């Protein structure tokens, strides 16, 4: 397979960028049919690279050919970064092939750059934009092995020296740091233990004195084997004063804002992993016979396929809504992004395990037509931890739930329709407007109540909506009754359970909003109620109502018809359902 390098223009930074910027369609065209054994960018090639433990060179070349770096640069700086949900959809084809490539040569650029777009100076923004538009890589050195996601306890120190700083200490388990041309580094600049004792720095690695730092040995991982995790040891490394991002002592505030972007976008992009697994299992079901009949006629298989398709749509609804909230509801996304980053990986991994039952012993093979299934099964737990795992996300939610319960739920109005109309243009996100603590006006949850009223008389959706309304009322009462010691990030199991229930109700609200506000689309499946009935049924089951009404053979039949049609026509299984190759 050959690929054409797109013609380039020159951005305002002076760096080359392809006309129109990278698109998911362009990526799919370059990547080609993954099942084709002759495709140098197919499943077999990525499996072989995974066995070697390094990124597929042809994969890196493909991303450079489409100018992927421009996708992470805001439009005013010559890139194409605009709608965050569009960026997530752009990254899905990469996650569908190889999470290590998607993270290590793609999404790591967003993790590194988001704080600079949030709080950086004009000069820093232009510097980083030129790096990414030029096809070079960035890395984000925030965490340390000893302290993990507890950034307040970071030990790397930046000491004032002359007209700059000296960086000292180690950053470990950092993706792509030894290959990056620009690195954002979180360092201690104060002696206390508070939130104002850390600052952020943007390092031009080409200008750093190499004798003042050393790259640490690579860390090997069970999943994402090709991901290049290593570290860097700063040895009184000189850093100019102009490298500080934002004001002194504001690193944690900046990072907490920026991570709302990465939580939402990267979680949404992970849907591509599940798309591949569901596609492989659907193809297997198409071909496999058991007891003289197609296994697709077995109730267990039908249920597993319909459930997996539904869970993928739920994950897309919640994550797409969180991405669009960054533009339209920036005061609320601290909770929406955290809930998304917690729940969607849980859904995806649970669904992966359900699909492995259908595939049987083949789900353990790392070669042959189903080898990519096992690769993604190993990659998903590692990918879900990318820069923040489930527990820190729940810890973000718990302290905010009592206030939302008192002042937001059951009284907030609905979210704007534009929040749910995926694919429609949005104003560029102003990351400086993101709030660390959400406002109490929870309008996404307000959408659930409006939808419940509208659908109350529906014979299948009405009972499910009444269950959801009752769950929201119960959640409000439980959150209001939390004792003070359980309202902190150090909460016990009770607080974490409430955070999980909140995330499930948000997912239900997102599904309802997507269904209500996309009736203009020429898509009979999306405007039908079958997928919504199935989604609410599965969410209420997770809330403790496994016998809730609303699902039947007709719903399963509708889901399977759509699933098989998309499989046979090489269309994505997500909300957009676009042609893949």
What descriptors fit this protein?
581 residues, alpha+beta, Butyryl-Coa Dehydrogenase, subunit A, domain 1, Butyryl-CoA Dehydrogenase, subunit A, domain 2, Butyryl-CoA Dehydrogenase, subunit A, domain 3, 3 domains, four-stranded mixed beta sheet, four-stranded antiparallel beta sheet, 49% helix, disordered N terminus
Short description:
With 581 residues, the protein is an alpha+beta fold. 49% of the residues lie in helices and 11% in strands.
Explain what the structure shows.
- The protein has 3 domains: 19-137, Orthogonal Bundle (Butyryl-Coa Dehydrogenase, subunit A, domain 1), CATH 1.10.540.10; 140-249, Butyryl-CoA Dehydrogenase, subunit A, domain 2 (Beta Barrel), CATH 2.40.110; 270-568, Butyryl-CoA Dehydrogenase, subunit A, domain 3.
- Strand 4 and strand 5 form a beta hairpin.
- The chain is 49% helix and 11% strand.
- It starts with 8 loop residues before the first strand and ends in a 13-residue tail after the last helix.
- The strands form 4 sheets. It has a 4-stranded mixed sheet with strand order 3-6-7-10, covered by helices on one side.
- It has helices at residues 24-31, 43-52, 57-65, 84-97, 99-119, 122-133, 251-269, 271-287, 299-328, 333-359, 371-383, 390-397, 401-407, 443-454, 461-480, 493-517, 524-527, 530-542, 553-568, and strands at residues 9-10, 16-17, 138-141, 157-161, 164-175, 182-188, 198-204, 213-219, 229-240, 244-245, 289-290, 293-294.
- It is of the alpha+beta class and 581 residues long.
- Helix 10 (333-359) packs antiparallel against helix 11 and helix 13 crosses helix 15 (461-480).
- It is built from 19 helices and 12 strands.
């Amino acid at each position: 397979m050959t690929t054409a390098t797109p013609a380039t223009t020159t951005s305002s930074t002076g760096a080359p960028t392809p006309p129109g910027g990278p698109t998911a369609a362009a990526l799919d065209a370059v990547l080609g049919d993954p099942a084709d054994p002759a495709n140098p960018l197919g499943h077999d090639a990525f499996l072989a690279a995974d066995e070697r433990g390094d990124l597929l060179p042809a994969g890196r070349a493909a991303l450079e050919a489409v100018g992927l770096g421009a996708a992470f640069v805001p439009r005013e700086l010559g890139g194409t970064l605009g709608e965050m949900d569009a960026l997530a959809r752009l990254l899905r084809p990469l996650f569908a092939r190889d999470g290590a490539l998607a993270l290590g040569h793609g999404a790591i650029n967003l993790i590194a750059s988001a704080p600079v777009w949030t709080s950086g100076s004009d000069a820093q923004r232009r510097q980083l934009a030129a790096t990414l538009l030029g096809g070079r890589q960035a890395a984000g050195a925030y965490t340390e092995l000893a302290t993990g996601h507890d950034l307040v306890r970071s030990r790397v120190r930046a000491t004032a020296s002359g007209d700059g700083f000296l960086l000292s200490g180690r950053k470990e388990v950092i993706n792509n740091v030894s290959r990056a041309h620009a690195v954002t580094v979180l360092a201690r600049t104060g002696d206390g233990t508070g939130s104002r004792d850390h600052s952020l720095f943007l390092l031009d690695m080409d200008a750093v004195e190499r004798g003042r730092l050393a790259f640490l040995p690579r860390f090997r991982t069970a999943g994402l084997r090709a991901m290049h995790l290593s570290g860097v040891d700063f040895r009184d490394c000189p850093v100019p004063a102009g490298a500080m991002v934002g004001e002194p002592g504001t690193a944690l505030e900046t990072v907490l804002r920026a991570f709302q972007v990465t939580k939402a976008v990267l979680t949404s992009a992970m849907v591509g992993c599940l798309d591949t697994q569901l596609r492989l299992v659907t193809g297997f079901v198409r071909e496999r016979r058991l007891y003289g009949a197609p296994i697709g006629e077995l109730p267990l298989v039908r249920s597993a396929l319909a459930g997996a398709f539904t869970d993928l749509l739920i994950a897309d609804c919640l994550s797409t809504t969180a991405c669009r909230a960054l533009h339209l509801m920036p005061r609320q996304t601290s909770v929406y992004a955290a809930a998304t980053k917690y729940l969607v990986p849980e859904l995806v991994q649970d669904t992966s395990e359900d699909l492995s039952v259908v595939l049987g012993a083949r789900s353990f093979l790392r070669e042959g037509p189903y080898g990519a299934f096992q690769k993604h099964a190993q990659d998903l737990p590692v990918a879900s931890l990318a820069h923040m795992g489930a527990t820190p996300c729940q810890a973000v939610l718990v302290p905010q739930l009592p206030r939302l319960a008192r002042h937001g739920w059951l009284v907030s109005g609905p979210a704007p329709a534009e929040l749910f109309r995926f694919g429609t243009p949005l104003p560029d996100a102003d990351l400086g407007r993101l709030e660390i603590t959400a406002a109490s006006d929870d309008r996404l949850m307000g959408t659930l109540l409006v939808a419940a009223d509208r659908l109350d008389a529906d014979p299948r959706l009405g009972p499910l909506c009444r269950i959801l309304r009752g769950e929201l009322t119960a959640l409000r009462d439980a959150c209001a009754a939390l004792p003070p010691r359980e309202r902190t990030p150090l909460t016990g199991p009770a607080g974490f359970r409430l955070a999980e229930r909140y995330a499930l109700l948000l997912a239900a609200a997102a599904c309802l909003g997507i269904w209500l506000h996309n009736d203009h689309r020429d898509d009979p499946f999306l405007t039908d109620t079958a997928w919504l009935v199935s989604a609410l049924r599965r969410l209420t089951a997770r809330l403790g109502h496994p016998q809730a009404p609303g699902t039947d053979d007709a719903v399963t039949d509708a889901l399977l018809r759509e699933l098989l049609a998309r499989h046979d026509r090489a269309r994505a299984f997500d909300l957009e359902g676009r042609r893949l190759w």
